[in-house]
Amino acid sequence: GASSRARPDQTRPDQTHAASDGTRAAGSFDSGALQDESAPTPLDAASAKAHAALERGLAWLAAQQLAQRDGTFPRAGGIHHVPVALAALGALAFMSDGSAPQRGLHGEQVALAIDYLLAHADMNVASPARGYISSEGDQLARMHGHGYATIALAQAFTLSPKTVRGQRTLDVLT
């Protein structure tokens, strides 16, 4: 990953530089040795199982959201209903797998969740709480829900800033 990659001006003892004769000197950096992160890599058995579990989880989330049809998710056995937090966390899960609003395997689900969050933002210019994202009746996750919603909206905006939804998102965030 990116955190394991050193910058060219940083070296680790196990890194080497190519000398003019083709040999490598200890403590040097070989930028050609970095993996091309855009190239597909084969999954080992454990990674394949983890990816399959992720796909099953996202499919389950999509089915739960479909039952609501407003972009939120059901309580799923929880005592309290915290729709803003759940919509935001669901959107983040779908976006973490590469979907964006209206694009990707779960693009429709992302769009529903983002639209729910946008619809629950206080956009009254005279309001001292302008931009606050909340749901009536949620007395438990108010600030946490707003925080998760802000993160989800910011991520969604970076994925589609030039769309109508992207501009609505920017209005809420600024």
Mean pLDDT: 81
Low-confidence stretches: 1-33
User: Roughly how many Å apart are the termini?
Assistant: 32 Å
3D shape: globular
Largest sheet, in brief, is: 2 strands, antiparallel
What fraction of the residues are assigned to beta strands by DSSP?
under 5%
Order of helices and strands: EEHHHHH
The main sheet orders its strands as: 1-2
Number of helices: 5
Radius of gyration: 22 Å
Q: Kindly state the percentage of residues in helix.
A: 40-55%
Structural class: mainly alpha
Number of strands: 2
Keywords:
single chain, 174 residues, mainly alpha, two-stranded antiparallel ribbon, 5 helices, 2 strands, disordered N terminus
What does this entry look like structurally?
The chain has 174 residues and is mainly α. The protein is 45% helix and 3% strand. Strands 1-2 form a two-stranded antiparallel ribbon.
